[in-house]
């Protein structure tokens, strides 16, 4: 089992930055990949970014590529999502996830955090 707890969300003006953190516990952190998803009001949950167990491989949704950076610190059992140049379109509940897998063009995950609100104001 894996438990995930996000922190670091909040309100930020357009063009600003925010960093989300994800604290993992349970199984050995370096045993699994992890990632971030988000769900905006009245929309489906969507993939944002993922990172391999070692941190050597990352991938991003086109909508955040070049603005968001995913990282992890296996020594601290922590994952991060650095978000720069935020816009109102980035407003959503952001979820940390673990053990991601792809099925076609979709990303799924076995474990989820509770979610953290990020709001980009105009």
What is this entry, summarized?
Helices cover 0% and strands 58% of the residues.
Order of helices and strands: EEEEEEEEEEE
Secondary structure category: mainly beta
The tally of helices reads 0
In terms of quaternary structure, what is this?
single chain
Rg, alpha carbons: 13 Å
What's the average pLDDT? 96
User: Could you give the count of β-strands?
Assistant: 11
Major beta sheet summary: 7 strands, mixed
Taken from the alpha-carbon principal axes, the silhouette is: globular
Report the β-strand fraction as a percent range. over 45%
Question: How much helical structure, as a percent, in the residues?
Answer: under 10%
Distance between the termini: 40 Å
User: Which stretches are low in confidence, meaning pLDDT under 50 for 5 or more residues running?
Assistant: none
Features:
122 residues, mainly beta, four-stranded antiparallel beta sheet
How would you characterize this protein structure?
The chain has 122 residues and is mostly beta strands. It contains no helices and 11 strands. The strands form 2 sheets. Strands 2, 4, 5, 6, 9, 10 and 11 form a 7-stranded mixed sheet that branches. Strands 1-3-8-7 form a 4-stranded antiparallel sheet, with no helix packed on it. Strand 9 and strand 10 form a beta hairpin. It starts with a strand and ends with a strand. The mean pLDDT is 96.
